[in-house]
């Protein structure tokens, strides 16, 4: 049979049909299916975090050349943020940009979760399998959750600029040296630091709560976005101290990875990404029976 290229009208009709099927599939995927069951949220502790990190390091060792090649993108992104802040005279937003990058970190680790998932099943994945997420049926809820995290990141930048305007601003700093001097030698500068860390902490807690196990769960099970987010929030609420430790580990690791010109992120990000998958596996159980409320006693 002879194949033809078609014409603009047929292209348009085909595109509309594809968009319609995609919208229908998106609605189904965001809601999930009931067959996946209701997850049981476990009580976890420091030993679970250590085990997740240990297995994250093992995965990194197994995928070292593949994940480093992928994760070199993160220092590049960080460098672009630095250049943008300096070039656009947005020096007060430089630290909020770099620290806020952690808010969308769970989205950046989706490919790493997929590699750990496949290795756990006895497969031998490579960097190409990380890109398989783009062909996954879970792509729609993953993208939607990623948009939520990006919205939190943008809101954090607006909040950081408002704090600067209320303390050292609203005029842009004359130079980097003058800005650093004002930050560390004036009362307004210290007020900006305290307010910035306080408000940033709130944004970090929100991002952690809604995403700490949401992305791995969406890849692992045919669940909807609402259930994934609720489960993630429940995990944080049930294990506040343990998840605070996890948040501290992530923050300190990213800070250390950023010190050598951001290049350390190519090492830190994959380890944290793989460890997040194993944290999900230790914290969430779909196989355990879900406790049900006692039925009402029969009338006498």
TrEMBL record:
It comes from the Bacteria. Coiled coil: none annotated. Signal peptide: none annotated. The chain crosses the membrane at residues 67-86, 92-113, 145-167, 187-211, 247-272. Keywords: Membrane, Transmembrane, Transmembrane helix. The keyword Transmembrane applies. This is DUF2189 domain-containing protein. The keyword Transmembrane helix applies. InterPro entries: DUF2189.
């Amino acid at each position: 049979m002879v194949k033809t290229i078609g014409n603009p009208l047929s292209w348009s009709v085909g595109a509309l049909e594809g968009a319609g099927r995609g919208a229908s599939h998106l609605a189904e995927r965001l809601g999930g299916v009931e067959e996946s069951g209701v997850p049981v949220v476990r009580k976890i502790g420091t030993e679970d975090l250590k085990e997740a990190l240990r297995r994250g390091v093992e995965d990194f060792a197994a995928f070292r050349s593949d994940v480093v090649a992928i994760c070199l993108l993160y220092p590049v992104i960080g460098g672009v943020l630095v250049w943008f802040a300096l070039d656009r005279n947005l020096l007060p937003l430089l630290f909020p940009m770099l620290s806020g990058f952690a808010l969308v970190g769970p989205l950046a680790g989706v490919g790493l979760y997929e590699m750990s998932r496949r290795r756990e099943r006895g497969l031998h994945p490579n960097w190409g399998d990380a890109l398989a997420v783009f062909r996954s049926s879970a792509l729609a809820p993953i993208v939607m959750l990623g948009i939520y995290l990006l919205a939190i990141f943008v809101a954090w930048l607006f909040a950081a600029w408002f704090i600067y305007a209320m303390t050292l601003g609203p005029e842009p700093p004359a130079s980097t040296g003058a800005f650093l001097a004002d930050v560390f030698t004036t009362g307004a500068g210290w007020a900006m630091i305290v307010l910035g860390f306080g408000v940033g902490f709130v944004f970090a807690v929100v991002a952690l709560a809604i995403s700490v196990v949401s992305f791995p769960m969406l890849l692992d099970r045919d669940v909807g976005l609402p259930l994934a987010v609720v489960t993630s929030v429940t995990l944080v609420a049930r294990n506040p101290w343990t998840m605070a430790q996890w948040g501290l580990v992530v923050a300190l690791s990213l800070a250390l990875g950023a010190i050598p010109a951001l290049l350390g992120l190519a090492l830190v990000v994959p380890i944290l990404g793989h460890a997040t998958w194993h944290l999900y596996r230790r914290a969430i159980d779909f196989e355990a029976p879900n406790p049900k409320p006692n039925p009402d006693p029969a009338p006498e």
